[in-house]
User: What shape does this take?
Amino acid sequence: MKLSLLPINIVSLLITIILSQSPVSLSETERCNPQDKQALLNIKKAFNNAYHFASWRPDTDCCDWYIVMCDRHTNRIISLDIFAANLSGTIPDAVADLPSLKTLTFHKITNLSGTIPVALTKLTNLEMLTISWTDISGAIPVGKYTQILPPIIKSKAISKI
Assistant: This one.
């Protein structure tokens, strides 16, 4: 009879331990840098909170959001790849508030218009900028990435350069 009570006592002890633990808040487990998260939320707002950004919610870790990638060690946003999106407007200046960004893509967004913002010249870590199948036009602002443009800028509208 004592043997049958032993498993019940262990289960009771485990339940007590689990219930006594305080829940872990998002801020204790979130990897995403707070400034990067705010920049991404500003980008979402600039595109009128389009459905393409549905996973971008303030109560979730932005390293888990759709179309972004965080660095494994620094947890900074290093890639933003917006593609095949039903978006209208211009490239938001808020993109320049992602200082660790290495890859930036705007692809197959036919209602994306205007020019490449001068603010993007702040992206000193940018290694790859792809703008293709958009209505972006005009001059490319002078910055670090102008040295690497020929192989990576592919836009039907940038032919006026």
In short: Residues 22-27, 148-161 have pLDDT under 50 and may be disordered.
